[in-house]
Amino acid sequence: MRYRQSITRACLAGFFLVVSTSAACGSVSAGAGKRSSTSDVALGERIYRQGITTSGESVHAYSQTDVPLSGAQAACVTCHRPSGLGSSEGGYYVPPINGPLLFSPRELDRRRLFPQFFHQIQPQGFKTRLHQPHMRAEYTLSSLADALSNGVDPAQQKLAAIMPRYRLADADIKALAAYLRTLSAHTDPGVNGLEVQLATVFSDHIPAAQRDAMTRVLQAYVNWHNLHLQEDRSRHDFSPYSRSEFVPIERSWSLSVWNLTGDESTWRAQLAAHYRAKPVFALIGGKVEGSWTGPSQFCDEHRIPCLFPDTDLPALPLSEPGYTVYFSAGLALEAKVSANYVAGIGTETRQVVQLAAADSFGQLPANVFQQALRARGPHAQQSLIIFHNRAQLDAALNAGAGRTNQILVIWPGADVTVAIDALAASRPQASLVFLPSRAIAAAKAAVTPELAARLRFADPYELVPSSRAKSFETRAWMRARGLTIDHSLLQFKEYYAMSVLDAALFEISDDFYRDYLIERIEDESQKDMNPGMYPWLALGPGERYAAKSAAIVRLAPKEPGGLTPVSDWIAP
What we know:
Layout: H1 38-50, E1 60-63, E2 67-70, H2 77-80, E3 87-89, E4 92-94, H3 99-102, H4 114-119, H5 124-131, H6 141-150, E5 165-166, H7 170-182, E6 195-203, H8 208-233, H9 243-246, E7 252-260, H10 267-277, E8 282-284, H11 293-302, E9 306-307, E10 324-325, H12 331-343, E11 351-357, H13 360-376, E12 381-387, H14 390-398, E13 406-411, H15 416-426, E14 432-436, H16 440-446, H17 449-452, E15 455-459, H18 469-480, H19 488-507, H20 514-524, E16 551-555, E17 563-565
Parallel strand pairs: 6-7, 6-8, 8-9, 9-10, 11-12, 11-13, 13-14, 14-15
Antiparallel strand pairs: 1-2, 1-5, 3-4, 15-16, 16-17
């Protein structure tokens, strides 16, 4: 609904079916609806996504006449993306090749091409080609084979040299065509002619004040979007040839709150029940106290984008393709950054002792830290002690964990105050004591100045959010809507998530496909929408962590935010 500027994405890793360097749009023809066997579709998907032929061998092709490509390098998904709706980069337009468009005559659709026309920094020749599209008939099996092998479209127009020329058997062409006919062929669930349905997720251990602060921002943004849309619809043709063209295809938004209760092993089933009751197009924001594994598996199973949940424990390892986009890797990122820092301060003469809670908040980062330190400092002496309760933690500390010649690393459980209280009581003499960023607030309140001077935290957040001009705009937006800013970090995260979603939904025009939404999220995240929660936020194609670095900090009561860095930003 609002104009936005764009920057080019990271360079594409390979090239596939660049059907033309001009616009490719149209309506579904009868040919796009032809029936194909399930086996053909599955085999075609393998060609498209993995670059493996129907016979199980790697696909082979040449780009620019003499650049060999094979296997995943030659897979269609590399350029045309999971949605099949293409991309653009470095002066090249990679057009859509999904069924409704590939198997229809080409038509020029300004709305679909709006980002390429007005929002991207591209050479003049790029825009000239878009303004002078070459028409063609719909693709058939024969003409698709000709395009793949010889680089000629149905109108006998030569395709760009960047388009690879393939060596594919007839069975491969048939399977690929079968899959392309199904690709982004029907609007995904959660969208109807009037509305895009969204949901946010909270677990029952999240304090009510935090949940309320976050949902207020989410709902205020939904209301803001709907109000703008209502105003636009009341003014017919108020801006010919630009914004008013989009109003007929835009949808209002609705937001549901999905509450998860009980053990996190049951969350996946609870989400499935919510989804059966009301399918949604995407999940947005929210916060859980626990691992995101169950929700991640649910989203992957149903191919539902889950955008920027607030969790310290993303599902590991990341799935391919993953439908959850995270702010960061959480505790795993902090563990790697801490290990990187420790490896650089001479661990050969000192023992590194980890004390980790028996739950996932302790054991997961402890294992990541151990592996990362082994890789970065293979001569470091490491030991790991698991504790189940405060008594076991006290016993470990009183038995010598944290002696003068040691570096102590503590990964508290879900309740960080247990570890902080134990530290304050035992006052270990370790040269340095490392803790996760989630323990910063408790440490500020409980430890002595002498111990505080030896505490270190891996902190992924911006130390001074107000240094970002966008933070003032965000605060003004919230105050204009009567929102109390009482949990600024959480509220800024929700605002950012909604801003990126808003931009992405505008850019997808009428193509409500979930894979395409994620692709647009990747693109929009590279724009300057960060209100200052993290120093940098950006996603490349296929990336799922927007923040990729952290700094080692110490407590500094006189500094803004009470922290000061002792390292540069570390991106492990």
